[in-house]
Design brief:
The protein contains 16 helices and twelve strands. The chain has 439 residues and is α/β, with parallel strands linked by helices. A hairpin with a 5-residue loop joins strand 1 and strand 2. Helix 2 crosses helix 3. The two termini are 28 Å apart.
């Protein structure tokens, strides 16, 4: 190992670890070093970023041979998403059928170039079966992984992906965002490759927030509710849409980008608060009267009622029948229990526990979350009903003072986070560095 010009032992220029703390220290021509752990972290970051951006020609192009089977898609989702097996199976089947339909149509168009094929068709016209799109509606409370499931699907299939918030959309001509701007985000994700964007995935979040106020059609204009649904209907079903290249409103004499939405997969998601009451009413399980037995609902099992949801229930909630008809696959997601939240915090590659270990390692401090701490964080998330989305805020609030004080101290070697610390019942356990008594 090369020696440092200043007489000090060499350290990694990225994380600050010394040669005794890592396997390798790789020197550069400028006298700086990088350790093997930082090299591995950089390699993982580049790989994940390339997969997410879907830029260039990395990986094989989606074809009949490279299209993963439903079981393979589900196995890929299992690596990133904890639980929700029923939803992952339904999504895997819907996505597989969607892209199989696209690839079959492309293969058929290639075969039509054959003169023999044209001659045969002119004699005996084949009976054509038109396959519809398998757009998906995800129903579940906040923080259960609706958006993350859609993102992971796009990353697995290596197709462009865009997210839109339905609450920001308004009908054309009103203050807000045009529906066509959703398509612009997908085009940008595909690096303005229109052919590639036409096979992408769009996730529309908070779709329940644009439901109309009642099942009956309103006489007055509802520019952020039914009007947006009518505008969404065209692009979800499939149409050639004109998209302003710079976003914003369309105006005359403006050059627009034309994109066909027939093969774009739309995944919509929403919490649909109050939908359980509509389902209970349809099933006749509501209790009325003074002598009715009072039943206390278990919040962890409340989402099980969504397994019986039908298209008619969604229409009753406030989505127009035409739009519901274009989203045939309805997938309910379960509430996350304590065990699922604990796994989310510890098992994934970029889990919160690993992230905080990395943060503290920059100050040469080791941090450990014992089982009681992980369980206490999960219990608090259940109580606050925030799902996995609230885990980070709970950890941040608990450790704010710790992250403020420890970087200024050079005598702390390790911090052990316990359940009592998370619950504000005790201080964290600090392991101090051994003092060197040699003179």
């Amino acid at each position: 190992m090369a020696s440092n010009n200043q007489g000090r032992s060499p350290r990694c220029s990225f994380c600050g670890r010394s040669g005794n703390e890592v396997k390798y220290l790789i020197p550069s021509q400028t006298g700086t070093y990088i350790c093997d752990e930082c090299v591995e972290a950089c390699s993982t970051l580049i790989e994940d970023n390339d997969k997410y951006l879907n830029k260039g020609t990395q990986g094989p192009e989606l074809s009949k041979e490279t299209l993963p089977k439903p079981r393979e898609i589900k196995e890929a989702l299992d690596k990133y998403v904890i639980g929700q097996d029923r939803a992952k199976i339904a999504l895997s089947v819907a996505v597989y059928n969607h892209y199989k339909r696209i690839l079959a149509a492309e293969e058929k168009n290639k075969n039509k170039n054959s003169k023999k094929k044209k001659f045969e068709e002119s004699i005996t016209p084949a009976s054509e079966v038109e396959l519809s799109k398998s757009n998906v509606l995800l129903i579940g409370p906040t923080g259960v992984g609706k958006t993350y499931l859609a993102q992971t699907l796009a990353r697995t299939l290596k197709v462009p992906f865009a997210i839109a918030d339905a609450t920001t959309l308004t009908e054309a001509g009103y203050v807000g965002e045009d529906v066509e701007n959703i398509l612009l985000r997908l085009i940008q994700a595909a690096d303005f490759d229109i052919e590639k964007a036409e096979k992408g995935i769009i996730y529309i979040d908070e779709i329940d927030k644009i439901s109309r106020k009642s099942e009956n059609r309103s006489i007055t204009r509802d520019v952020s509710g039914e009007g947006v649904q009518q505008a969404l209907l065209k692009i979800v079903e499939g149409t050639v849409s004109n998209v302003p290249p710079n976003g914003g409103r369309k105006h005359p004499n403006q050059e627009c980008i034309q994109i066909n939405t027939s093969n774009i997969l739309f995944i919509c998601g929403g919490a649909f608060d109050g939908l359980d009451k509509i389902i209970e009413k349809r099933r006749g399980t509501q209790l009325i009267g003074f002598r009715s037995e009072i039943i206390k609902k278990d919040p962890l099992n409340a989402s099980k009622i969504y397994e019986d949801v039908t298209s008619h229930d969604i229409v009753k909630y406030g989505l127009i029948p035409e739009l519901v008809g274009r989203i045939p696959v309805i997938v309910p997601l379960d509430n996350l229990d304590i065990e699922s939240l604990k796994k989310i915090m510890t098992e994934p590659r970029n889990s919160l526990v690993r992230q905080y270990k990395k943060i503290f390692s920059f100050d040469n401090i080791e941090i450990e979350f014992d089982n009681s701490a992980v369980e206490a964080i999960a219990k608090e998330a259940i109580q606050k009903n925030t799902g996995a989305r609230g885990l980070r805020s709970i950890i941040e609030n608990s450790m704010m003072n710790l992250m403020y004080e420890l970087p200024s101290r050079d005598d702390v070697e390790k911090v052990i986070i316990t359940g009592d610390f998370i619950e504000n019942k005790a201080e964290p356990q600090l392991v101090l560095k051994k003092k060197d008594d040699t003179v």
